[in-house]
Amino acid sequence: MVRDEEYIEFLKLIVSCINHGDYFSAKELSNLELEKMKQKSKDNHKK
User: Fold this and answer.
1) What distance in Å separates the CA atoms of residue 14 and residue 28, rounded to the nearest whole number?
2) Mean per-residue pLDDT for 14-25?
3) Residue 1's pLDDT is what?
């Protein structure tokens, strides 16, 4: 699972993008975070 600190930092980045009207960056950050989470999940299942 994602640690609280990591998730809070991610949410701060998303909110910052939205506050500046940069929805494309918010979408890209979300996609990158999703890929990172998928990779961590795969790595944890391999162990």
Assistant:
1) 10
2) 94
3) 53
Nearest to 25 by CA among 36, 38, 40, 10: 10
Q: Distance between CA 21 and CA 36 in Å, rounded?
A: 24
- Least Cα distance to 17 among 9, 27, 5 occurs for 27
Residue 41: what are its φ and ψ, rounded to 5°?
-65, -45
Half-sphere exposure of 37 (CA within 13 A, CB side): 12
Cα distance between residue 32 and residue 29, in whole Å: 5
Task: Give percent above pLDDT 70 in the chain.
Answer: 94
